[in-house]
Design a protein that fits this description.
The protein has 329 residues and is of the alpha/beta class. It is built from 14 helices and 11 strands. The longest helix has 20 residues. Its main location: periplasm.
Length: 329
Amino acid sequence: MRDMSKKRSVLPRRKSLFAALLLTAGLFSPSVHASEKLKIGYNNWVGSAGVFVAQEKGFFKQAGLDVEFVPFKGPSDAIPPLVAGHIDVALTTADNVVLVNARSGSDLKIIFATDTSNGADAVVSKKNLTSLADLKGKTVAVTQNEVNELLLLKGMEKAGMKPGDIKSVNMDPDSAGAAFIAGQVDAAVTWEPWISQAVAGGGKVVFSSAQVPNLILDVVTVSPATIKNKSRAIAAFLAAVDKGTAYVRSNPDEALPLVAKRLEVKPDEVKGMLVGVRLYDMAGNARLLHDKVAAQTLDNISAFYSSHKTIPKTLKGSDMVDGSFIPAH
């Protein structure tokens, strides 16, 4: 995993927004002002390790924030409450931003990427099914109209298959993993720790997110109203997350048990799961957001969903990215 924890002084290259936000958030000083409240919607995903460590180590509190975490089962479940204004921030996936903006006319913005899946999402099959092509006519558990189905469809497209070539059963990733291990389906699109458990039980990974870089991008998403009304708190939140990510890299012996506590697994399992993701810090986000990498990912997702009639129109990726909280590199 690349080490991107080195700090860089880049404030003079931005106009005044980022510097002003940091100054008003009290991030250049240990002193804090009255705590600001943020409600964060999340699901248990190893790529949020920096967020979990920031909470467990008190980095949010140090930044003058009172952060309330609202749990959801999957990355899409936090989107409706975000649109309705019941939460301030959603830790979700880029594809969900495309889906809601295209379908409802919402204008959600991606302001940060926590990580990208690099093998931690995959299609697992019975050991006698050695490729995606072998899944023709087979029963596959997958979360329909979400990121896991997108991964499956991308893999099938590469294998020259059509969506109708399989029998799709709608299940969330955890249920899909459990159903596969129980022998109820021929294959499943799931995530860690179910992938490791499936392989340990004799299953085989026939396609994974490592084969489609940045397709499954985990992001911090907010509404324009939150950007306008809580910019200081958002800047403080992202700085604390960046600090948490750096801590994961520099102090793994202490950080991994903290993440394991949140995921309800063993620290060694977290270590293994982190191999399947690439964590992004501020420097990584500068490349993603300012060099248009995230926008291109969104363009690809939008075009793909549009071609499959999943969304009524194609959206422009750059319209869904707000890099104002990220210093230039």
